[in-house]
Design a protein that fits this description.
Elements: H1 2-17, H2 20-25, H3 27-36, H4 44-62, H5 67-81, H6 87-90, H7 92-108, H8 112-125, H9 129-145, H10 149-162, H11 173-187, H12 201-220, H13 225-239, H14 245-258, H15 263-280, H16 286-297, H17 307-319, H18 323-339, H19 344-360
Helix pairs in contact: 1-3, 3-4, 4-5, 4-7, 5-7, 7-8, 7-9, 8-9, 9-10, 9-12, 10-12, 11-13, 12-13, 13-14, 14-15, 14-16, 15-16, 16-17, 16-18, 17-18, 18-19
């Protein structure tokens, strides 16, 4: 009706007359106004432009852990493309982006049924494994969130095989020792800090996926933990630094400390992980890295010294939509708070708050 037309006109005028800075500041107001009259946008070019605007609004909402509003923006973007029967042909890149973001937001909200419908669209229309990969990562994370850890791991391993990095399915002590010796040999005399960035796109995807499944392997198939860690280390030395490399060296340090009892060397590898994290300036892996560092740090520092870092890891994870890994950081925070003698009434209150957030986001692990 007339009201919808007015909202559309107001939103469009705000959009057209705003500078880049003003648009970023008032993005939600602009997009909300236009969306209320979105049904009245008849031309395909205009609908695509507004769909892209909804992508920006949704990403901004996601960065503030506002996953429900984010999902509504991504849904609006998808709806704007619905009239176009050939949308996956004409607007392929935008469809791939929108459906992926919408599925991710639904996963963060615990709306797994809708997430699976959206992922099915990506798997149906995606032109290559690379294009479908983000969808598979979302699926793996969502399976883990629903306590289907083994299914998450098997799915991840299958994709790694398709990417040319198969993981051995039968793990014995002999296999682990052989993999460790290969890794030690590769690391000998190497200055990790001097390595350049990883440029091979396929290996970058492999590293990202290995980092994604690592916490689930640790929880459900711990015998695979060293295999995944050693693979990430060797890929880093051969192909260069990936954002997940910091995570790999943190995990390697934990193995050297815990399984081999070499606390000094393990701590040094943990510090390598920390330096690589600072070098990347990417907070996506921070939550996982700090959770891993908590296993190493207590060999050299009092337990309480690292608690603020774990709390920061939780908060960063929630902001990034890393709800599973944020939950893990909260779990370790509570565990180490208990073992370091924190007052129990205060700890109980924090645990209840963490639990409420965990349930609200559909986390069952």
């Amino acid at each position: 009706g007339n009201a919808d037309l007015w909202h559309k006109c107001i939103g469009k005028q705000l959009w057209m007359r705003s500078s880049k800075r003003e648009l970023h500041s008032h993005l939600f107001v602009v997009v909300d106004q236009i969306n209320r009259g979105a049904a009245l946008i008849n031309d395909a070019v205009g609908r695509v432009a507004v769909a892209n605007l909804n992508v920006r609004a949704g990403k901004k909402a996601m960065s503030s852990s506002a996953f429900i509003p984010a999902a509504s923006y991504f849904r609006a973007g998808v709806d704007l493309l619905e009239n176009n029967l050939d949308k996956w042909t004409i607007d392929y890149d935008l469809c791939l982006l929108l459906y992926g973001l919408y599925a991710e937001a639904c996963s963060c909200n615990g709306n797994f049924d809708l997430m699976e419908i959206l992922l099915d669209e990506i798997f149906k229309h995606g032109k290559s494994l690379e294009d479908k990969l983000k969808g598979y990562v979302i699926l793996v994370d969502s399976l883990a969130a629903r306590d289907k850890l083994e299914e998450a791991i098997v799915t991840g391993f299958d994709i790694l095989g398709d990417l040319g990095e198969p993981i051995p399915r039968a793990i014995t002590k002999r296999v682990i020792i052989a993999e460790l010796l290969k890794t030690k040999l590769v690391l000998r005399g190497k200055d990790i800090d001097a390595l350049g960035p990883m440029k091979d796109e396929t290996k970058r995807r492999v590293m990202g996926l290995l980092g994604t499944i690592f916490p689930y392997v640790y929880l459900a198939k711990v015998e695979y933990t060293p295999i995944v860690t050693f693979r990430m280390i060797r890929l880093t030395v051969k192909y260069g630094i990936h954002d997940a490399s910091a995570y790999a060296f943190t995990a390697y340090g934990a193995i050297i400390c815990g399984a081999m009892g070499n606390y000094r060397q393990g701590y040094e590898y943990g510090q390598v992980g920390l330096r690589l994290l600072e070098r990347s300036r990417n907070t996506v892996w921070l939550t996982r890295i700090y959770t891993g560092l908590s296993i190493i740090k207590h060999w050299a520092q009092p337990l309480r010294a690292f608690l603020p870092s774990l709390l920061n890891a939780y908060n960063v994870g929630m902001r990034n939509g890393e709800t599973q890994n944020a939950t893990m950081a909260a779990h370790v925070y509570c565990l180490q708070s208990y073992h370091s003698g924190c007052p129990l009434p205060e700890l109980e209150m924090k645990m209840r708050l963490f639990y409420d957030v965990m349930v609200a986001h559909g986390q069952q692990v």
